[in-house]
Every structure is written in C-alpha cells, then in structure tokens.
Amino acid sequence: MTVSQLPPFIQALQHPAAYPHPVSAIKLVQTHISYVLLAGDFVYKIKKPVLFDFLDFTSLDKRKHFCEEELHLNRRLCPSLYLEVLPITQDGDTICLNGAGSAIDYCVKMARMPEERMMGSVIKRGELTPAMLDGIVDLLVPFYQQAEGGEEIQAFGTAQAVSVNVLENFEETVTFIGCPALNQGEFDAISAYAKRFLAQPALFRQRIEAGKIRDCHGDLYSANICLAEQTFIYDCIEFNQRFRYCDVASDVAFLAMDLDFYGLSDLSNHFISTFSRRANDPGLNRMLNFYKCYRAYVRGKIGLFTAHEPEVDDATKANSLEQARKYFALAAAYAGV
User: Over the stretch 142-171, which tens digit does the pLDDT of each residue have?
Assistant: First the structure.
C-alpha cells in the first residue's frame, strides 16, 4: 500500500511537524486492527475503524474508550511505559497530535523501547537465556496472584465459555480453507482435537476451583515483551474481556507456544516448569497442549486477517500468509497430526 492510499490523518502523522517533540524519522507499522507510529522517543498507537465479531472500533467514541482501557490495563504490568491518551486534532488543513481544533481520532502514547531488546529480536540473534525467562516469570507470578478473579471472571473458565473462543476461530477461518496457509486436513484435525478436549468439563471445573481463572494479559508472546534493563510486558487485550478473562494456563501457553514456534522447545519447557513451580500450579500441564494449540491457531487466523486487509502492502501480505502457514502447521502438531 502506498502512502497516498492511507487515511489522510495517518499520512499527516508521517511528517515530523505533526509532533510536539523532535522527530527525525517516522516508521509506520500496521496490524489488522492498529496503526502504530514510531516517532522519536515515543510510540503512538491508533485503532483502525474496524468491525470483527470480537471487537468494534467503528465509532470515534469507541476508539477513545478502548484507548483509555488500553492505558489503564497495561499500567498493571508496565506503568512507566504507558503515558497518556491524546487526541489527533484537525484545525483547517492542519492535522497534528493534541493541537487546536476538533478531535478526529485518538491514540495511546507510549515511551519507545529499544528495538534491539525486543524479545523477538533477542530470539533471532540467538541470545535468549533461561535467566531472561526467569525474569518474565518474576513479573507474571505476582501479576496473576493480584489479578481479579471473582465469580464473574471465573465463569469464563468453564468448558462452555472457553468453547466460545475456540470454536469461533474455526468459524472465522472456514472460508480460508484451501488458501496457501490452511488446508482441509489441518482444519479438520485441529477442530476435532479441540472439540474432544472441550468435552471434558471436569478439567475446566478443576481450574476454576483452584483459582486459576484471572483477569490476565491475553496476548502474552514475544512481540509484546521487551528485555531491556527492565523487562516490559505490554499490549494486553483491552478490546474484549472474554479474551483476557481466562485460565492463567492459556496466558502462559501463548508464550510457550511462541518459543516452540521459534524452535526453542527447551526454553519453552524451562519457562513452563519454572512458572508452574513458582506459581504452585501443578495442574497447568494438563491444560498446556490444548491452550498451545488454541494460541497457535489464533496467530494463524490473525495472519490470514492481516494478509487480506486491503491496505497492507504486498510484502506484508506475503509475510503474513507465510507466518499463518507455519502457525497452522504448529497447531496441527499439537493436535497430533
């Protein structure tokens, strides 16, 4: 996608004059639901006006609300990173951040982290260590202990409630079967495995009784972790409670799956064994493979969605399809294929 095909206010925000601080270069990153602008010492995250079964960002008021939710929820794990919600304003032909004129959209302002210390970059350089994963566990164990876990949240841990999220993924991807990323055999095997596991409601009741259903992060994988002098775990799910109210096993399975995806099964096992021991959660392992499969399939689905967004460029489209193919293959492996 060329710059001229982007929304006018996103085009305007790619000019340094739109910012109230020095900016020498601006980088735009897109997902299926966000525009992310890296500008100087800060990052600005803007919600696309999209509608999916699992989120609704279609109105200005909703985008403002979810920006505020993002700020509040992410301050649980990294308060120094999430700074404020700012309006994107227009006064005549001038569009800028927090300027004069009317608010035409909103963004979350964050401190910019060192890109070379992002967990994905650390993994690609072969520098990830067990000690780094121990540092992540050090943050997660008290986070889950302190997270809300009342009756309303516990209700999201039943087999029936979990099945809503899991089966929705299959409904949303059935039309993609036969594309380069997903074949019929994988789809059938993964969906059958998930349905067999969901037909064991006692397993899910045990997790509720153990107090393991909490207001979690919801998107815990390497793209949302920075291993700088301080470890940051950021970008939790703010747009839908049912993706965040979950078994802690589902949360940590996401990162374990991500490590498997990068061929780091030994480190994945270290992370889970360390977390299980420190969190006093021996029952986690009974749920792990199921939730790894679920998380891998979600990442595959997101790759498909991103690849088919009209505004993404050809390189992003091709990369997203290739990533989706690998995630679906991993999900199939968890399903026993």
Answer: 999 999 999 999 999 999 999 999 999 999
Q: Which residues, including other chains, have CB under 8 Å from residue 245's CB and lie 6 or more apart?
A: 152, 153, 156, 213, 214, 215, 216
In a shared domain, residues 253 and 280:
yes
Q: Are residues 198 and 98 in the same domain?
A: no
pLDDT in tens, 225-234: 999 999 999 9
Residue 18 has pLDDT above 50, yes or no: yes
Task: Please list the residues that pair with 47 across neighbouring strands.
Answer: 34
Contact 140, 128 (CB under 8 A): no
In a shared domain, residues 260 and 312 = yes
Residue 13: the pLDDT is: 96
The pTM score is: 0.91
Q: If you average pLDDT over residues 307-313, what whole number do you get?
A: 80
β-pair partners for 46: 35, 107
Tally of domains within the chain? 2
Regarding whether 138 and 196 lie in a shared domain, the answer is yes
Contact present, 136 and 231 (Cβ < 8 Å): yes
Q: Which of 80, 97, 75, 77 is nearest to 26 (CA)?
A: 97
Q: Kind and range of the H or E element at 103?
A: strand 102-111
Provide the CATH number for the domain around residue 69: 3.30.200
Q: 195 and 105 in one domain?
A: no
- Domain end among 85, 112, 139: 112
